[in-house]
Specification:
Glucose Oxidase, domain 1, 29% helix, 9 helices, 9-stranded mixed β-sheet
Length: 336
């Protein structure tokens, strides 16, 4: 009996040792790799390492939109299986709020009772910021007096952008869209303000869905901003919001992403980078020449993607071709 007890104790000890080693290996797999310090000097270095300047010629104004080739469009069109369309634009916000200092203006200037048979209205909006769904043109940002591809800041004046304006995208965006639902990956309803998304999570989403990001894709990052706003009310997202950490931009370059977007303004705020307030915007717009979708509403597409268990779709978007425009409000569509 004592021998049996001794043997059982030995087996138990071995099992505990094996389980401990396995747990240790699992923990090793979960620990993120060491990250280099993120500061202004690192961002300058990344700008050089990741730059697309000259990649498509000295006069190129399309930047990463060049990656949306005819073959990419054909493959994207083939993703339409059920014909289900989902809007990615949030409803226009016409009331001032902590995240909306510049509401949409809407004035009905003619209506049936006042002037015959016609109804006419006027819209006005300062769409850049953290409320209205829009696409940033690449001329939206400068660094050290230059824009993407080395075009000088002097190309932009009171008449608009002489280079890299929104009208260079007058053919629109037609490509494969991929939804990266980070709250779903983390098992929460939304990310809390200030939570950063690192490249390991983008890779983990690829593993989770079995979909590899490839050249020409549009990557849409859900933080759950609008779900949180609906539940807890608006807050100053310009100061505190979830988003990508600057170190994630290398993933975008290596995978060949053509357009990036989110339900806020893509950067995590505070940025976590000393001395740089919008490092992702800087690296993406100025370094990569990549347009950015800001303030999309990704709640409906997240629900549809979960219903279908399908995270890829045809993405279409047509910005207003305003000559010299720094961007455009728009209503992108995901079509399954």
């Amino acid at each position: 009996m004592r021998l049996l007890s001794s043997n059982l104790a030995a087996v138990a000890c071995c099992l505990l040792t094996v389980l401990g080693l396995a747990a240790g290996r699992a923990q090793d797999r979960q620990d993120p790799p060491p990250r280099e310090p993120a500061d202004a000097a690192a961002v300058e270095r990344w700008l050089g390492e990741l730059s697309n300047w000259g990649r498509w010629g000295e006069d190129d104004q399309l930047g990463t939109i060049n990656l949306i080739t005819p073959e990419v469009r054909r493959r994207a069109a083939a993703l339409v299986k059920q014909g289900v369309a989902v809007s990615l634009a949030h409803a226009t916000l016409s009331e001032e709020a902590p995240d909306n200092p510049n509401p949409y203006g809407h004035e009905v200037v003619l209506h049936g009772e006042s002037r015959g048979q016609w109804a006419v209205d006027r819209l006005s909006v300062l769409f850049h910021g953290y409320a209205h769904s829009h696409l940033d043109a690449v001329c939206h940002m400068f660094h050290d007096g230059k824009m993407y591809n080395g075009f000088p800041r002097s190309e932009v004046d009171e008449e608009g952008c002489g280079k890299l304006a929104i009208d260079v995208l007058q053919l629109g965006i037609f490509t494969r869209g991929l939804l990266v639902d980070v709250p779903r990956l983390r098992g929460v309803s939304w990310l809390e303000p200030g939570e950063a998304i690192y490249p390991e999570e983008l890779e983990a989403w690829e593993d989770e869905t079995g979909i590899e990001v490839r050249a020409g894709d549009a990557l849409l990052i859900r933080t759950g901003r609008w779900a949180r706003r609906a539940a807890e009310g608006p807050w100053n997202v310009a100061a505190h919001s979830a988003g990508l950490h600057a170190s994630s931009v290398r993933f975008l370059k290596e995978r060949g992403v053509s357009v990036i977007g989110s339900d806020v303004a893509i950067d995590v705020f505070p940025s976590g980078v000393d001395g740089v307030s919008h490092p992702v915007h800087l690296l993406v717009l100025v370094g990569l020449g990549m347009p950015i979708f800001d303030n999309l509403d990704l709640e409906a597409v997240a629900a549809e993607a979960a219903r279908q268990e399908r995270w890829e779709f045809l993405l279409t978007a047509a910005p207003l071709p305003v000559p010299g425009g720094t961007g455009s409000p728009l209503n992108p569509l995901a079509i399954f």
